[in-house]
Amino acid sequence: MINYLLILCMTLMGAVASVFFKKASGSESFxxxxxxxxxxxxxxxxxxxxxxxxxxxxxxxYSKVMPLTSITYIWTMVISYIxxxxxxxxxxxxxxxxxxxxxxxxxxx
Length: 109
Prior knowledge:
There is one protein chain. By secondary structure, this protein is mainly alpha-helical. The protein is built from six helices and no strands. Helix 5 (about 70-85) runs antiparallel to helix 6 (about 90-105). The mean pLDDT is about 90.
């Protein structure tokens, strides 16, 4: 059970890190992007998520962990809607439902 909670945290962290990368990508130039704090905050969160991934992989099957990382797409859609004011279409909702169904089927032992 703890591994599934770690996967939820890991995927949420990956999605949050991507938001910081998105903010850093709005810099006027590559040089300014390298000075943008969002790049480093996103990088730190992303590395922390990778460490959680390694921890989970030590005790779960690779064939289960990797498909479950697709939960990141769900977090990404929710976060992009809330923070970036992006549209959520019917197609995106259907896609998320498919991801959730697939993640459930894969995690069943």
